[in-house]
Amino acid sequence: MPDPIHDKLVERTAAVEERKVAVSERQISLDERRYGSGGASDLVRTNLAGVLAFLTSVASLFIAYQSLRVNDAAQSRQASIETRRVDLETQKVIGEIDEREHRLRFELLEFTAKNRDLIFGEDEVAKDRIAKIMVVAFPAELVYPLFQKLEKVSPSSAAWKEGTEQVKRTALSQQNVTAGGGGMRVIGGFSLKSGMTINLHTKANADVVTYAAVVRSFTGDTVAKWSATELENKGGSFTTQPGNSYNVMVLAVARSASASIHVNFSSPGIFKDEQEINVGDNSNFGWRIFGE
Q1: DSSP 184
Q2: 20 to 30 A from 73, CA-CA: which of 4, 43, 56, 115?
Q3: Whose CA is closest to 234, among 260, 268, 199, 269?
Q4: Nearest Cα residue to 176 out of 262, 105, 275, 96
Q5: Where is 177: in which H helix or E strand?
Q6: Which are the contacts of 43, defined by CB distance < 8 A and separation ≥ 6?
Q7: Residue 146 in contact with residue 186, Cβ under 8 Å?
Q8: Would you call 4 helix, strand, or coil by DSSP?
Q9: Assessment of whether the complete model's pTM goes beyond 0.70
Q10: Where are the chain's structural domains?
Q11: Could you give the CA distance from residue 262 to residue 265 in angstroms, rounded to a whole number?
């Protein structure tokens, strides 16, 4: 957006310099009539012409400098607007996830309460059936930590151990679709022990207006957030904690259908996932990290 104050300053400065040039031209005319033609006149004309050229150059440089200041200010304001825009978009997505997770947690609680006799009973066939229903009916973010707890409560039951593995298989096979509880395209996933460092470096093409990344634990906590500038300069990094699993999600604002982000997602010595991801449809994408 143009800055009227800077624009007016540029106009006034240009007018002043034009008046200086006019005065110089008038002085040359008077000097010519005064001294006439000849050596002295030629010298005067030469000197005054040099002064005139210098003043014109100074005026041009000043106007160019002020124009650059106007452009820089406009670009700075636009960058600030876009940063705020992606922050609001990130908050909106996180809010939608929170709302959906609260509803699904309540539904899972109801389901568990209604079937507690089967869940904590001795019938392994019934437990296996309940586990399979839960894998299909509820997102991995909710079922996975529940199965881990049930494994500890009933270590002799194979149903919950198999249920845990089934959740991982199902979640990690959901490539390029909107995942159950995360509101993102799952482009990859890994199982990791606690204490592992995970790094994310990115580079967007010119068709991406702006973007950000957020790390959410399966318990609903926001573990880390990074702006596009942070991701492209030093990258984002976090360390897995005991008993936690995560969604690592990238949210982008695209200018056109050809917008894409090059991602390098890795854990030193364990895995590396490098891809070019199209975000022209403004969809969120990311990875699932299952804690072991």
Answers
A1: S
A2: 56
A3: 199
A4: 275
A5: none
A6: none
A7: no
A8: helix
A9: no
A10: 4-80, 178-292
A11: 10
- Could you tell me where the beta strands, DSSP code E, fall in the chain? 185-192, 197-204, 208-217, 222-227, 236-239, 246-254, 260-267, 271-278, 285-291
CB atoms within 10 A of CB 177: 10
Residue 167: what pLDDT?
78
- From 188, 166, 168, 177, select the one nearest 272 (Cα to Cα): 188
- What is the spatial distance between Cα 264 and Cα 286, in angstroms, rounded to a whole number? 11
Q: 10 Å Cβ neighbour count for 259?
A: 22
180-224 tens-digit pLDDT: 344 678 888 888 888 999 999 999 999 988 888 889 888 778 889
Two structure tokens written together for 27: 């002085």
- The two structure tokens encoding residue 291: 């804690």
Say if residues 174 and 224 touch (Cβ distance below 8 Å). Answer: no
Closest Cα to residue 242, out of 290, 291, 287, 288? Answer: 291
- Count of beta carbons in the 10 Å neighbourhood of residue 249: 25
178-292 folds as Lipoxygenase-1 (2.60.60)
